[in-house]
Protein: Condensin complex subunit 1
Amino acid sequence: MSKLLDSITSGLQAEIEAAQRDIDADDHDSFPTHRQVLDVYAFFIHWFVMAADKAGSRSSEDIVVASKPKRGKGATKTSRKPANHDAETFTWTEQIIPTLALIGKLLRIKSHRIWLSTAERDTFINCVTQPVYHIMENEALMKSEGIKTEAYKVICLAVKNHGHAFGAQTSMIQCLQYFEHLAEPIAEILTLLKDQFDHTQLAEGILREISGKTFNAQDTKSPRSFSRFLIRLTDLSPLLVRKQLSLLLAHIDSESYPMRMALIEIVGALIKDIAMDEETQVDAHKKENRINALFDLLFERTLDLNSYVRAKVLNTFSRLCDLPVKFPKQRVDITKHVVAMLQDKSSSVRRYAIALLTKLILTHPFGLLHGGPLNLTEWEGRYDTVTKELKEMEKNLGMGDIPDPEGTQAEQQETEKQEGDAEEASDEEEADEDDADAAEVAEAMEEDEGEDEGSVERTQPKKEKTSKKARPSLPVDLANVTDEQVLAAFDAEKHVKLKLIKKYVADALSFIRQVEGASDTLSQLLVSTSKAEVLESMEFFKTAHEYEMECAETGITKMIHLIWTKDNSATSTEDGKELKGIRSKLVEVYRLLYFDPLPDLEPKQQVNRIAKNMIERTYGASLAELTSLEELMRSLMVDGQIHTDVINKLWHVYSVEREIPRCQRRGAIIILGMISLAKPEVVSERLDTLLKVGLGRFGKADLVLARYTCIALQRLGGSTKKVKGSLTDKSIRFPMEHPLFRKLQDAIENPSHSMDWFGMAEQAVNTIYLLGEQPDSLCTTLLRNFTVRAFTPKSKTATQDATNGSQAMDEDGPEPEAKDGPPTPPSPSKTEATEQPNEQGDLGDSFILSQLLFLVGHVAIKHIVHLELVERDLKRRKDEGAKEKQAKNAGKAVIEELDQIVGNAEDDIGDHIADVREREMLYGANSILATFGPMIVHVCGTPKRYKDPTLRNAATLALSKLMCVSSRFCEENLLLLFKIFETSKDPNIRGNIVIALGDIAVCFNNMIDENSDNLYRGLTDKDLNVKKNTLMVLTHLILNGMIKVKGQLGEMAKCLEDEDTRIADLAKLFFTELSTKDNAIYNNLPDVISHLSVGEHAVDEETFQSTMKYIFTFIEKEKQAESIVEKLCQRFRLTEEPRQWQDIAFCLSLLPYKSERSMKKLIEGLPFYQDKLHNEVVYTRFSEILAKARSNKSTNKPDSELKEFEAILLEHRDKGAEDQALEKTMKKKADQAKKRATRRGGGSAE
Structure:
């Protein structure tokens, strides 16, 4: 092969040189000879390239860029015959470049001198160029830059010098259609042809041919190839594509979405080219019109049906935002469309929309005058200031009388900019916003501030700079110019600048308001199921915070709940972008915003800043936000990212002697308590400080501070979680003589009428039971002291003083938020002391009585937990003793006997503790809690006598907790609790009772299961919190099998369409979890349909349909679908109302009908619904079922059965319609006969 190629190339080389000499010598006699010889060599070259490529394709290893033959020990021996050695070592790849170079040399001769006939010349050129196209079809060969360069030259020479344009166009179109890898090379060839050979006709012809092609939606290969070609050609030669854009836009509505995507990318590239073009002298107005027209095309495509196209639009906008030209006029429209696309149904589109919104903030052009921040309040203040200044100037100056020594150029500019805007000109603000171009704003800013204008469009400033240079040449008689005229000219110029600045500020305000308006949607996307959306939303709020936007704080606060996300692994998107874990991203965002040191601060300032940021995170935080913040701080502490200096600074803020804002001291101890979860030594080393500050002077003055101090003290016991079934207890306890408990007792007993006392007392009791060795003794003392305080008679003077100083609640105040939490503080306007008279006329402080009852209830509920710990400790001791005996006695019989004894002993311990809880705590002769049970029942049972809301709150709360202690007490007072739940007007009391019923169900589920109807009433409560609490409690009880669903699932289904999104989301979560239980939704589906469709519980038809559409998504098993079809068909015969027919037919249409058995069941049920088919809605639903069954049916099976069923349906519909018409006619005739009979009767009477 090598020798053959050498012979052909050497011969052709000699012939080319001879032909060139004869052509130069104008020797016409030798032309026929050369023509014949060149034709032969062209054939040889063509044949050899085909043969060599075919032989070379057998080994892919030969087709490597700049590859060399493998020699030495690594060489592979494929044949033992020496004769084939040359063939085996021949590498075609190495010979391609010289061969193409020779063909290029061949094409440099003047072919029109040798071939007089065009047809003959075209045949020769095609024979020469065909091998080049064949080489290009090999994707591996086209990776070699040398081969590509030589191939490009051959084709360009053939087109430019030998009339190969038509043949090249045909070949290139075919290559684009069948070889996707040639899209970019062909674009490069056309660009080379334009730049180096000054030939654009071929490119224009190919573009025209492409614009006339039609691409099918099912064809995915060729549209992708053509789209890549167009994009690459636009990048290389935008002017070429721009000339043919009007023709190419025919594909903007193509069925093939890759072509639509290509057109969008082309439009974006053309916008970039026009905006960045500084060489072409084009009128600025025309240039702006072109850009506006192209942007309009992009805006239209934001509504494209295909999500990939919509995403491509967003990507195009994103690339345009990176340009030095900021497109200030189009930027507002871009932001408006992006905000709308945040609610797109496609997750990928929403993700790109969030990313683009972030990019718009990062690249905003409003930082030239006032820096980068985009704080809405500050910009509104700037707008008010410049508006006021502008009005004052217009008021003080007669603008029409001011001469302009520079030819009234400013007025002409204003007139030009206001043309065609008469409608908006009537509104002062809108007219001002349209008065000036962004480029002029940059110029005004440059004059006022001396800053660079690098972020605005470049076309208008050029025009202005030219005019500014020309101004000094105006003929002005300086001798005759008065001071007044100079001042007037200066004021006119200042007036123009002010209007430009006002326009600039107005545009910034419009942009900021649009972004701020999207914050609610972005907050919702923080909890999206798409990981990419969540990460992009987090990045947006981080960027918004850096630019001081007001919406950022809400998003940053809501974002912290993502700390509970379980998925923390890194993944990659469809476009290959790596995504971090959500939890990792959250920690990173908070670190960057609040906890990482800044480069320009000293170490002490760094510590102060980080501590300040930590404390500020607690300001106004809800319980859920504090819980999430606690997990975040714990994670940071575990990872060692909180420095010791920061912890010391927090202790300093907490313990500083001087008066500081209460929120700062509170925030410091809250953060310290959170950190100590990971490292208890943080608290244990400063125990004296906690007792001195939080339970000392500052704690008595600020009960909230005392409360959080108690929470921090609880960390002393350690945070080790108990393993289920384990008898070990690693918690740390202190003797009751420890100063800690004396301080806690003083804090609880310190006289106070503040509602914050309840929260403090709750956490103080928790601390006593968590850290005390014998907490019951101290709590008994507390109850006795409060009993004495509550029932000791007071003098009238003391009573009046207590009344004047108290902050007890009046009758209509709110109640506690949670069953086991402190009562909710009332509004300050309704706080006053209430005294309750008894039958003997004594007076007592109801607030102190409320404190006593609250303590009774909380001590009772904590004592239950304490008894469980005592039981575990006793079992542990028995177990340790048994193990010691087992070690001493090695006999097997003895071991078995000991195991039996230990098991019996553990059972005895459990029975004894249960007996103490059931009979001793509330009914024992020596139990202090037994004294208060009847009192609490009495207060709860006589609301007309005990009207104080705080007292009623505390009594109801205590009653609920005592009912969790003993089943006997619970049974005796359960109806009373339900009665309070039904009659109480206070939503907080009702909400607390709902939560209490959930706790009671955990303790004594049989009692609640028998009265579950009363619990479901909370779902119809008018108060949203009561409804939410009821839904959460029922979700917990049903999913954990504590109560059985007895037909009330329909009330839960109503919540799916609740107006409050939180309740609707909770309901959806419930049904999603319920669907994982075996057949739970399937078994209750008929009851749900009946509940929502018939009777007093029925909902409107639209709500019914949306609810059932969601529930039926959980019916996935085919057997369940078949059974439901049968049951629903039978239900037709029991209904008489058209609404019920329609509801049943709608439910039938929701089933998938994937199997023939489902359709068979439906056909068999025809007698039950055939007389209902005259109803148009019912018939439409059955038609939908038929369409669904046909789509699921395999194509190779006949659908004769379905056609027959369709005919039967149509027949019964027509028959039913006739029966209905006949019935109406008969009824009408009967009415007419009745009227005639009435008239006759009246006439005879007369």
In short: Residues 811 and 949 are 5 Å apart (CA to CA). Residues 327-399+488-567+577-596 form one domain. Confidence is low (pLDDT under 50) at residues 59-87, 400-480, 796-842.
